[in-house]
């Protein structure tokens, strides 16, 4: 399976490369575009400032340019937090998308969004200050209305970016459960 994996607002750090290697070890071809052009953040505040300085439209433009050469193959889009929101935007706009794996993040959904039974899997902390319950309920309903087949996995007590071993949010048990479920999801596509 061809996978386009987008980093979080911390940038393209070792944890993203390790995730890509995990996916490659499972037999998948993975690309990890650097949407921040080499910049990384050490804190949430730095990440927000970096994301805001580049701007949402520019980040989406960079993501589209990274994915375009491979989209004819039928990509699985995946991402961490901010990268999940970017992956979601691209998957909902790509008629050849094979699936969408979201780790820690979602995005608004355009009212005219429509997909043909796109398989979607979300892994999120519970609770998560960036993905509150009310938001996730509305997101789920809008994704279903758009035609997506959605599964949500919640991890009680885990921090927002619980799959990232280099951050205080890391929760090894939740991360391993998310990867086990996420890899099975990708294998099923």
Describe the model.
The chain has six helices and six strands. β1, α1 and β2 (29-31) form a beta-alpha-beta unit. Strands 2-1-3-4-5-6 form a six-stranded parallel β-sheet, with helices on both faces. The chain has helices at residues 14-25, 44-54, 56-67, 82-93, 133-146, 172-187; strands spanning 2-6, 29-31, 76-80, 99-103, 119-126, 149-156. It is 41% helix and 18% strand. The chain has a single domain, classed as Alpha/Beta hydrolase fold, catalytic domain (Rossmann fold), CATH 3.40.50.1820. With 189 residues, it is an alpha/beta fold. It is globular, with a radius of gyration of 15 Å.
Annotate the secondary structure layout.
Layout (H helix, E strand, L loop, with lengths): L1 E5 L7 H12 L3 E3 L12 H11 L1 H12 L8 E5 L1 H12 L5 E5 L15 E8 L6 H14 L2 E8 L15 H16 L2
Helix pairs in contact: 3-4
Q: How would you describe the oligomerization state of the chains in this entry?
A: single chain
Name of the CATH superfamily: Alpha/Beta hydrolase fold, catalytic domain
Query: SS-based structural class?
Result: alpha/beta
Q: Helical region count?
A: 6
Instruction: Tally the structural domains.
Output: 1
Question: What is the percent of helical residues?
Answer: 40-55%
CATH architecture: 3-Layer(aba) Sandwich
SSE sequence, one letter per element: EHEHHEHEEHEH
Task: Give the number of DSSP strands.
Answer: 6
Write out the strand line-up for the largest beta sheet, numbering strands in chain order. 2-1-3-4-5-6
What general outline do the C-alpha atoms trace? Answer: globular
N-to-C CA distance: 8 Å
CATH class: Alpha Beta
Classify the beta-strand content into a percent band: 15-25%
* Biggest sheet architecture: 6 strands, parallel
| Mean pLDDT figure | 96
Note poorly predicted spans.
Answer: none
CATH topology: Rossmann fold
As a whole number of angstroms, the C-alpha radius of gyration is: 15 Å
């Amino acid at each position: 399976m061809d996978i386009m994996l987008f980093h979080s607002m911390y940038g393209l750090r070792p944890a993203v490369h390790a995730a890509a290697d995990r996916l490659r070890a499972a037999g998948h071809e993975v690309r990890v575009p650097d949407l921040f052009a080499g910049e990384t953040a050490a804190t949430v505040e730095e990440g927000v400032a970096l994301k805001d300085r580049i701007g949402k439209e520019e980040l989406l433009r960079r993501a589209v340019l990274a994915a375009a050469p491979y989209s004819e193959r039928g990509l699985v889009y995946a991402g961490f937090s901010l990268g999940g929101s970017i992956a979601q935007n691209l998957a909902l706009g790509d008629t050849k998308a094979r699936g969408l794996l979201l780790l820690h993040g979602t995005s608004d959904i355009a009212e005219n969004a429509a997909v043909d039974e796109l398989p979607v899997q979300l892994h999120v902390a519970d609770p998560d200050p960036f993905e509150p319950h009310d938001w996730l309920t509305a997101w789920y309903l809008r994704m279903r209305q758009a035609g997506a087949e959605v599964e949500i996995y919640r991890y009680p007590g885990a921090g927002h970016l619980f799959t990232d071993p280099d951050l205080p949010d890391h929760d090894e048990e939740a991360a391993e459960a998310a990867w086990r479920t996420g890899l099975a999801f990708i294998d099923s596509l």
